[in-house]
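Researcher: Please generate the 3D structure of the following complex. Treat every line as part of one assembly.
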Amino acid sequence: MSNQTKLVPTPGQTVGPFYGYALPFEKDNELLAPGSPGSIRLQGTVYDGSGQPIPDAILEIWQPDADGNVVQKTGSLVRDGYTFTGWGRGAVGNSGIFTFTTVNPGPTKPGAAPFISVAIFARGLTNRLFTRIYLPDNDEALANDPLLRSLDPERRKTLIARRDADGGLTWDVRLQGEGETVFLDFQ
Amino acid sequence: MPEDTNAQLETDESVPPAEPKAAHLPLDRAIETQADLSAEINALGDAYARALKEGTPAETQPRLDYPPYRSSILRHPTKSLHHADPETIELYSPAFGHQDVHALESDLTIQHNGEPQGERIIVAGRVLDGDGRPVAGQLVEIWQANSSGRYIHKRDQHPAPIDPNFTGIGRCITGPDGSYRFTTIKPGAYPWKNHLNAWRPAHIHFSLFGTEFTQRIITQMYFPGDQLFPLDPIYQTIVDQDARDRLVATYDHSLTEPEWALGYNWDIVLTGPKRTWTENEALGAEGDEE
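Model: Done. Output below.
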C-alpha cells in the first residue's frame, strides 16, 4: 500500500463552547475508581495568555497501564469499574481545573521515561493540541528521553508533572505566554 | 441521558465569562461590525493568496493564531509546535466497541417521545487514514444545534425555541470499511457574539479517533452553498479554499430515502499513520471483541 497517493487530511475546527452536553459522560475522568489500590489523582489548571484560568477546555489522556503495557480494551464510555482502558476525558470546571483518577504509567521499555499522552480542546482553540505529561520520579530516564533532550531546560519543565504529597500528580497547561506549554507536532 | 444533561446544565449556569470580548457582553457593547470583521478576514485571505502565488506551500489546517476569531487571541500558542516522533502509546488509539455505543445512538431523531422539528437528514461517509485505509471499529461522536439554531446548553442564550424532542447528540462505531451513518435534523444557523450580527453557518460537530492517538481530531461539518461561509471567522480560520471545502458535505441523492430524509455524504481523512501496520490491521480488523 506504500505506493498509494497520500490523501490530504481533513482540517480540524474548534470544539466551540457547547460541547458540555455532548462530550462528557459518566466517570469519563475515572480511568480507575477513586480510592482503589494504585489509583492517583492527576490534576491541573488550564490558563490563557493573560494567566487567567479558562472554564471551557476539555482534555483527554491516553496512557499505558502501571506495567507499561498499551491497553487495547473497549469499555471507556461505559465503565465497569474494573477494566483499565488507558483513556479518559475530563472537562475543566468553572475555575479551569481538571481532574483524572488514574495510575502512574509504567515505562513502555526498560529505562524509558513514562509519560501520559494528552489532547487538549477549548473554545477559542482552533485545533486540538497534543502534549505529554512525564512522571517526575526517574531523573535518569528523563535526562535520556529523546523529546525532553531536544528542549531547552526552561521549556522541558512544562512537560514534567509535580508529585503531590498524597502521591498524585499536578500538571498545568499554559496555552500562551510565560511558561507556555510545549505542544507537539507529529507530522 | 436526560439526568446527565440536566446536571451539566446546572454546572454551566454559574460559569463566569471566560473573556470579556467573547460571548457574554450585552449586544450594545459589541461595537465591531461584520464589515470590520470581513475586512480583517479578507486581508488575511489576500495575504495568503499572494504567498501561495509566490510558492508558499498550501495550508491544510486552521491557523491557531487567527485574530478575527476573537476568543483565539489569548488561547493560541505563540511558539511553534515542537516536532516529535510519536512513541509507544501515541502510536496506538484507545479501543471502542459495541460495549461503549448502542446502535440506536446514531439516530438523533428517536431519543425522545416525539419527532423533532425540522428537515430530517442522513449524514453518512467513511473515516480514512492518510493512506486511504478505512478506520474500522472506531468511535465517531457528533453534536449540533436543533433546526432553529439552538443548542441544549444553558450558555446558549439564543432566543430560538428549544425542541423537546431533540437533544442533538449522536455516536456510532465505524464499520469494517470505515463507514459511519447518522440520522438527524438539519441544524439551523445560530448567532454568536464574536462581533455585531455574527452568525455561524449551519454545522455539525464531529469528534474522531484514528488507529493512533496522533490522529485524534475534532472538527465541524458544513452544508453546501451556505451564504455565511465568507463571513464566519471560525470557518475562515482555515485560510485555504481547498482545505475549507473539505469540511463541506456533498448532497447525495443516492443517500436520500424516498419520503423520509435527504442524504449528505462526507468523508473524513485523518493524518498518518506513522506506525508500521500488522497484516491483521491492514485488512481492517474491527477494534471490538465481537
